[in-house]
Predict the structure.
Amino acid sequence: MQVAYRDNPQFQGWVFSTDLQAYQSNTTKPTNPSTNPSNTTAQPGDSVPGLEDLVGARAGQAEQTVTQRGYEFRNSRQVADSSVTYWMERGTGNCVAIRTTDGRYGAIVYTADRDCNR
């Protein structure tokens, strides 16, 4: 399946997984209850309101900010030319993925609980 990041549609690639769900972008952004950080029903792929200002930040400097904002590091993995770190949102228990490329945060989205080893 060909995929692209919601926050950066120019970043595209191909993946194989049985866990993927199709997403069709709209020209108008729908109201999404998961944009409330206190919401426990965030869906994989939704942006993380409490961290979206860190997209583009240098990873080494921003990691402390992620921790200070109430996220607990769970694990990481290398994916092609990027690394992905997984964090648990302490207030909700939601799992968050942060993609880092060339030393900068490129995407910060909610992801499946299993990515945080749960």
